[in-house]
Each structure stands twice: as structure tokens, then as C-alpha cells.
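Action item from last meeting closed. Structure (373 res):
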């Protein structure tokens, strides 16, 4: 019999999985048909049946660790995890993840944090004990309109509104700007700002020279915010726009390269955005996300959290983490229905809220079918 006082030692494996989108997913980085992810699975030699699962799901063209040697890095991490004493608290999880995975691998650190937290809580995908995880409360979400033709985007927005979403986010900057303004005007003709919150995401599409005039034009449609109007890395121009823009500016891609506390603090102090948008897979995991929130709140900067096209394993962890803050703004967590071969999970969108049902079972990872083309 195992001594209950003796340390538990970890074992680690991983499972690749190729997700297939239900539709051609238009993004600022092109059309996505598949998304390659990896499920990190942790147990202990003393209790192999308690398995914690985390998801490593970098986005091609955006994530620092979307690179050819990612799987080798996962294999190396599994090797280094084997025989390590398992953490006994959330703080120990974050310390261990930081020790084992450096800042160059944000998606990998996120996956490790989630696998460890899941194991710590019994391997039931209950990452944080909140009213959300208990099925008592939902998380307010925005409805996402994917890039497409303008008529299709208009129809997507109307469909989201019909489903009960009171906050809709859409991409702009990829099509003719005048026609995009026409789309926003058409939505505003039938849905006033007190009934419908409109967010837009330019994904850095505007040049610094044209951005100010375009932001003045967009202000006519009484937008909640605009994400990343110019490309990341142009801090002086972004700071100027944040001071003068009639539309509140939110930073998204801008956050990815700022990985130390000092760098984060300097960015927020220099640019002073209205909001930051946090994707744990991109910014280095849950501990890093928590630090961004702490720094933003200290400067009265708003925030919300979004998924980065993870499957339900990652989405669930992000939602449960988000729920610990009891947010009031709509979050970007309505991505559970993106894939043909997503892991079946007790997550569901009801009107504009994401819910978790702890009485429903998760699909076993061994039942997943990946796509090779």
C-alpha cells in the first residue's frame, strides 16, 4: 500500500489530434480547414487512473510555438515530467509549469498548466471550483461573425442576434472599407446601441496614416471597441491612436511578444488602451493571463478573455479560469461548435451564455477521430 504522506510522482504522455472545421474559417491569416492540436495527459505512478488532460493548440502564423519542432518539444517535456513530484496546489502548478516550459512556448505552457490543474482536481476536467463549473451560472459571451462575403456576414450577424446574442463581434479590414461601413450601418438601422453591442476586429488591417480617419468614420456606428486597428509593434502610433480615437481601442496581437512583468507593465503604461483581450494559449498560459489582468486593473484598463480556436479541452479550461473573476463584460468563448471532430463535452451555448453541466460525461480521448487531409 502507498504511504499517503509520500510524494506522488508524475507520468506523462500525449496524443496528437487534427481538428476539422465545419466550414472554411476565414481569418486574417487566411482560410483555415484544420487545426493540429496535442492533448497532454498526466497521471502518477501511484494512481494511473486519475488523468489530467491539457491542450496544446498553437495557431499557425500567430503563435510563437506553431513551429515544426513543437512535437519534439512536447516529447521532451513528457520525458522531463516523468518521475517529478506532483504539485499540491495551484501556486505549485504555476511554478512547475514556468520551470519546465520557457516563455518561447506559450501554448505548451498553457497545456501543461491545465493538465496539472485537472490532475490536481481529480482528473474530471473540473479545473476551478466556481458556480460556473458547478452548473449554477453561465458566462456571458459575444457572438462571433466570421470573415466572408458581406451578405453572408450580415446574415451571420442576424442569426447571432436571433439566437439571443446582445453583443456581436465581426472582423473588418479585409474587404472594401466603405462596404464594411455599410454593413455596420445596416445593423445599426435595426438594432440600436442599447439593444446590440457591436465589437469590431481589424487584425492590424489599417495603416497608421489612415487609421485616424477610419476610426472617426467607424465612430458613427457607436461601437463598443475596435481590436488592433494597426499591426502590432507600432507602439508610438498605437499610443497616439488610443489617446485620440473616438472608438475605444483593445489590444490583442500586441500582447503576444510581451512576456515579462516589466514588458507588460511598460506596454500598458505607454499605450494606455481601453481594453486588452487575453488568449491564454497565446500569452503564455493561465498564470500569465492572471498577471495581465492584475496589471490592467491597476491601470483601470478593461479586459476580456477569448479562446484561440482550441477544442473543448482548452475552451473548458479557459472558461473555468475566466469564471473565477466573475466577469460582467461578454467574453469570447462561443467556439465549441467549430469542429466536426471536437471532443464531446458538457459545454453548451444557451442564448448568449456558455454553461457547463457537471452531470454530463466527457468523451474519452481514445474515441476521437482525427483527419489527415
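Sequence:
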Amino acid at each position: 500500500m502507498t504511504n499517503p504522506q509520500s510524494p506522488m510522482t508524475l507520468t506523462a504522455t500525449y496524443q496528437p489530434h487534427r481538428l476539422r472545421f465545419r466550414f472554411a474559417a476565414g481569418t486574417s491569416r487566411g482560410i483555415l480547414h484544420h487545426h493540429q492540436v496535442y492533448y497532454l495527459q498526466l497521471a502518477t505512478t501511484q494512481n494511473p487512473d486519475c488523468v489530467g488532460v491539457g491542450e496544446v493548440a498553437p495557431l499557425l502564423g500567430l503563435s510563437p510555438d506553431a513551429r515544426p519542432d513543437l512535437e519534439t518539444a512536447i516529447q521532451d517535456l513528457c520525458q522531463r515530467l516523468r518521475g517529478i513530484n506532483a504539485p499540491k496546489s495551484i501556486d505549485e502548478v504555476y511554478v512547475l509549469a514556468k520551470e519546465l516550459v520557457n516563455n518561447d512556448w506559450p501554448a505548451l505552457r498553457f497545456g501543461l498548466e491545465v493538465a496539472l490543474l485537472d490532475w490536481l482536481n481529480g482528473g474530471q476536467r473540473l479545473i476551478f471550483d466556481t458556480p460556473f463549473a458547478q452548473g449554477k451560472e453561465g458566462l456571458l459571451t459575444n457572438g462571433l461573425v466570421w470573415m466572408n462575403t458581406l451578405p453572408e456576414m450580415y446574415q451571420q450577424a442576424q442569426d447571432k442576434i436571433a439566437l439571443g446574442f446582445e453583443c456581436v463581434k465581426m472582423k473588418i479590414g479585409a474587404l472594401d472599407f466603405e462596404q464594411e461601413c455599410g454593413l455596420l450601418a445596416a445593423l445599426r438601422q435595426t438594432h440600436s446601441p442599447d439593444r446590440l453591442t457591436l465589437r469590431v476586429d481589424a487584425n492590424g488591417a489599417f495603416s497608421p496614416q489612415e487609421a485616424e480617419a477610419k476610426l472617426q468614420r467607424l465612430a458613427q456606428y457607436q461601437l463598443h471597441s475596435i481590436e488592433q486597428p494597426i499591426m502590432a509593434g507600432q507602439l508610438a502610433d498605437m499610443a497616439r491612436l488610443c489617446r485620440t480615437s473616438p472608438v475605444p481601442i483593445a489590444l490583442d496581437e500586441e500582447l503576444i511578444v510581451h512576456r515579462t512583468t516589466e514588458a507588460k507593465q511598460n506596454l500598458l503604461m505607454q499605450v494606455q488602451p481601453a481594453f486588452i483581450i487575453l488568449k491564454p494559449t497565446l500569452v503564455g498560459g493561465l498564470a500569465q493571463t492572471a498577471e495581465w489582468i492584475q496589471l490592467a486593473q491597476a491601470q483601470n484598463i478593461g479586459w476580456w478573455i477569448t479562446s484561440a480556436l482550441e477544442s473543448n479541452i482548452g475552451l473548458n479550461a479557459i472558461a473555468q479560469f475566466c469564471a473565477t473573476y466573475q466577469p460582467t463584460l461578454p467574453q469570447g468563448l462561443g467556439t465549441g461548435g467549430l469542429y466536426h471532430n471536437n471532443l464531446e463535452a458538457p459545454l453548451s451555448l444557451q442564448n448568449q451564455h456558455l454553461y457547463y453541466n457537471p452531470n454530463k460525461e466527457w468523451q474519452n480521448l481514445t474515441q476521437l477521430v482525427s483527419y489527415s487531409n
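Note appended to the action item: The mean pLDDT is 94.
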